[in-house]
Specification:
about 65% helix, membrane, transmembrane helix, Peptidase family M50, transmembrane
Length: about 350
């Protein structure tokens, strides 16, 4: 019974620490002038609605994340604003790991120093594991990565501008388009190499998000290298499946989105059947499969039911739930087919 009680104490305390981690980010965002519109600590979500505040309790969440915040779109008026926002976002991200490290040290010391406080040491170790996961998936990845790689910096700013909730003004779109072209022009890519996964993953994210932003009218144009990269993705798909199985799901989704993009461009476009079969097999998303079928199936396909499914937010990827900044893309994509 002693160990059960100790375990329960540790879990409850860890949940409080997870909440405090997100709360620290929230407080920091107020000082940085970011306007919060979505606050999530699993399984609770608080979000802004057009007519007030909404609260959801859901069991599903993004793998690797214990909580998430999302904000209204930040407005950019110049390239200088891009740099300023990037600096703000690094501060916003760093407060979480600083809090986690401080908590770990304090709890660990208290746990080994105080009598009958072993649960504090256990909590410290649990929190170290949870914090490490958060650090490598989010806070650390973007706070450190954005300083080292322009593609990661772009992804970070993109999440707070083009993918922010609310309207995105024209100047923001123009600046992000210019930045997209600038970064793309500096990317040197020929084909997939298993020993160069860092470049591959960053290019995959950069070009996929750029493609989505363009389809959503948030980027004014796409650099020519976008299509080149996507075509190499298709050419190297078998190699990617063989040597980098962990990224096959992302790659498959990107290929399906690219084919939809081509279909929107050219109504007579016919994708490679072999690639489609493999991509649908590995994409691991019922929603993406339905989205592809909505664009490419024949006249006997039940488009009405499929459209209703696609327009239901609960069916969309978890990232979109109660986040108009992300769900707007899928609404737009369905509309483009009409």
């Amino acid at each position: 019974m002693f160990y059960i009680i100790m375990f329960i104490k540790s879990i409850l305390l860890e949940y409080i620490l997870i909440f405090c981690h997100e709360l620290i980010h929230l407080i920091c965002s107020f000082f940085l002038g970011l306007k919060i519109s979505f606050f999530q600590v699993i399984p609770f979500t608080i979000y802004k609605k057009p007519n007030g505040i909404g609260v959801n309790i859901k069991s599903g969440y993004e793998p690797g994340f214990t909580g998430r915040l999302h904000f209204n779109s930040c407005r950019l008026t110049s390239s200088l604003d891009y740099s300023k926002l990037l600096k703000k976002l690094r501060i916003f991200l760093w407060v979480g790991p600083i809090f986690d490290f401080t908590v770990f040290i304090v709890l660990f010391i208290l746990g080994v120093s105080l009598k009958d406080s072993l649960y504090l040491t256990i909590t410290a170790l649990i929190h170290l594991g949870v914090a490490s996961m958060t650090f490598f998936n989010s806070d650390g990845k973007y706070s450190i990565g954005s300083k080292e790689d322009a593609r990661i910096a772009y992804a970070l700013v993109n999440a707070f501008t083009l993918c922010g909730n609310g309207d995105v003004n024209y100047e923001t779109k123009r600046i992000m388009t210019d930045k997209h072209v600038e970064i793309s022009q500096n990317i040197d890519w020929t084909f997939f190499q298993v020993h160069d996964l860092w470049n591959f993953l960053n290019n995959l994210s950069f070009y996929t998000y750029s493609l989505c932003n363009y389809l959503n009218n948030d980027l004014l144009s796409l650099d020519d290298k976008t299509e080149f990269f996507m075509e190499t993705l298709i050419t190297d798909f078998d190699k990617i499946k063989t040597f980098d199985y962990r990224q096959v799901t992302k790659t498959s989704s990107s290929i399906l989105l690219y084919y939809i993009y081509r279909k929107i461009q050219y109504k007579s476009f016919i994708p490679d059947k072999h690639v489609v079969i493999e991509a649908l097999k590995y994409c691991n998303s019922i929603y993406y499969r339905n989205l592809y079928n909505y664009y490419f199936n024949d006249d006997n396909f039940d488009f009405t039911s499929c459209k209703a499914y696609l327009l239901t937010e609960d069916n969309m990827p978890m990232l979109c739930h109660n986040c108009p900044g992300y769900s707007k893309f899928f609404y737009k994509l369905v509309k483009l087919k009409d």
